[in-house]
Amino acid sequence: MSAEAVYLPLLIFLIVIFIFFYLFRTFLKFNREKKKTEQKDTSHVGFVVDTFHELVSKLKEKEKELKVLKKLAEQRAGDVESYNRNILQSVPSGVISFDRDLRIKTMNSSAEKILSIKAEDAIERNCEELFKNPVAKLLKEGKPIERGEVQYKLSDGRELWLGLTFSPLRDSEGKEIGNILVFTDLTELKALESQAELRKRLSSLGEMSAGIAHELRNPLGVIAGYTKLLSRKADAALLPTVEAISKEIEVMDRIIADFLS
User: Fold this and answer.
1) Residue 104 is part of a domain; what is its CATH number?
2) This model's pTM is above 0.70
3) What is the per-residue pLDDT across 177-217, written as a single tens digit (0 to 9) for each?
4) Residue 141 DSSP SS3
5) What sign for the dihedral angle of Cα 140, 143, 144, 150?
């Protein structure tokens, strides 16, 4: 057997072993790289999941904060609304608000008292159902009124003097959303003004009467003086007439004195 025939199988065997170890090494290297990649992917996924959970937790915290802020804002708005309502109910003037169709939306307690009507019986009613003329006519005209005065008769027959102001009602943006009527009962004030006017007229009349009485007494005094002279010099037949004149002068003087007292 020749040397080539002996070494050839051995060479082939060594080549096969080398190829096997190369392939095995390559497989191990690939396996390690694959594990590293899987570990890296797993680590990345974990980071994303942790970040997501942290984001969700922060969103829940912000949601709680927003709920608290919303509750505080609603409470504050309620406090402001209650405060404004208390102011409206405390003012002595009647205040009624209307929508654009002149339906009554709100009415304070002073308006109820002045008009002798309950708010629940007036809300959502048209102005013509609540008010009579001339107030209903003024409201239907829709023109602003500043410090107007009208004489008004209630359903129970009482007559009032109302001082009123009628103006547009606007929202926070300045848009007209209705009208507002503010009115005051001037009946007592008008009565006082009438009494003052009567006293003024009576005072003027008294001054004028005093002047007239003074103007009357002067000629009466003169007549009385001449009557006394005439009684001394007149004939006996004329004395009854002179005495009658004297008595009438005394009566007139007494009437003037009573008038001035």
Assistant:
1) 3.30.450.20
2) no
3) 889 888 888 888 777 776 777 677 777 776 777 677 677 77
4) helix
5) negative
